[in-house]
Amino acid sequence: MGSNPAKKPPEHAPTSVIAHRDGTYSSVIHWDTESYGVAEAALNARMRPRKVTFTDPDTPGGDEATRDTRTIGQRRLDALTSIMRDSLRADTGDTSGVDTTVLVTIPLEALLSGVGTATLFGVDAPISARTARRMACDAKIIPVVLDGNSQPLDLGTARRLFSPTQRQAMAVRDGGCVWPGCDEPPSRCQSAHVTPWASGGPTDIRNGVLLCPFHHRRFDLDGWDLDTDPATGTRYLIPPAWVDARRTPRRISPNSLAA
């Protein structure tokens, strides 16, 4: 008997999603040529290398502590997530009639302490409380705070979020992600609180900074801090001790837009 030739995947076949026990997911997408070409061009545009480099004279040759250590696969995933975040911001739901807001349920104690887990509405696997607090910086991702009986106490409001005017002011000041070596523009950055909102940090531009999602994760999860010289207004990123035992400040230099 002759073997049957392998069948080509049907055009626009649905995406296969596999849920793993560790809370991660794998997706297998069967692309047609046109769709793959568009997707590849969009991903490559998000992953493009910096065209203009600003060198900090205090750290000649670059700084290992601020080097991007992501693999190509991790960078592609972050680029794809960034494109999807842009889609969420742009879609008000007025045309399709479907609300694109993401809801995150989290216990009050976990919100305040950053210890514990939260749940993305419609997704079974939990996320960490610290991840939920970081996600709350996006206007389309709203935390639903629960009491001890899992009853909603509060729905995140605009007081937690930076206003469009504040974001514009930070865009002029920061010019995009402030992390040394990162060239993500303001439109792809999150307005992050230096002192977390849940810990009493005010929602004002002095306590705000623009960070891309990847460096926002590093800032929060790796234990970085940000300090400002009151005399000059110069800002510095302070690494955690496990990255730099001396915690040497990294000066935040003006990037292309601010310059």
TrEMBL record:
Family annotation (SMART domains): HNHc
Domain HNH nuclease per the UniProt entry, residue ranges: 165-217
**By its UniProt entry, which InterPro entries does this protein fall under?**
DUF222, HNH_nuc
- Reading the lineage from the top rank, the first entry is Bacteria
Record's protein name: HNH nuclease domain-containing protein
